[in-house]
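quick one, 256 residues, struct below
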Amino acid sequence: MTMLSWFSADLHIHTVLSPCAELDMGPINIVETARELKIDIIGITDHNAAGNVAAVMERAGQEGPVVLPGMEVQTREEVHILCFFPDMEQLQAYAAYIRERLPPVRNRPEVFGDQVVVNAREEILYFEEILLVNSVTASLEEVVQEALAQDGLVIPAHVDRGAFSIMANLGLIPPSLPVAALEVAWPEKLPDLLLRYPAVGKYPLVSFSDAHTLSQFRAGYRTYFYLKEPTFKEIKKALQGEGGRKVVIRQAAGSG
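---
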């Protein structure tokens, strides 16, 4: 029988494809920093796009960390949702769905920043011209249902923030919305959040760095998963509390 072990994870990381990320957030730096920090699993979650996920996966290779294919979607309601998938094929199918629902607004790099697609060696392949930090035309429910249709796992992002969060913008989590967990930005303020929104306590809670810079990556929160192995399937089981699997939030060492 396979024993359960703890695996550290940061599943909310932006690359140079996100215009708000610094230009050192490429595959080499992300993977090397994860190894330095002994992070076992990372999630690449650029805004409304997935163009750099494969490059990070290639860079990680067999040595790790394990890379969860993902995306951070901004719904019509301006709610940020983390969506993860078992493999690149399903992520790419979902990315095509999201792309079709992005407003045809061109990026202005001098205002928003560059949106760079790179390979595993951090060589520039092209610059994404459509502005990625807009809301898609699909609703929260539609975004979630399409992710589930691709066997995805859905986590509303930074629910305790005052902007781009499900609690700030809707004031509630629709009871019928099939989400796997909720991400909190400030776990230390969780008691206050639960006083304001008791329903948050009904869901598994995770916390990640939401890193747009390497310094944020180093200092951010991690979530530890108690798993048989570091896989999408096992993470999903841990969020369901299946077979003794569980999740625990911890702050990065030395971050205060």
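The two ends are 39 Å apart (CA to CA).
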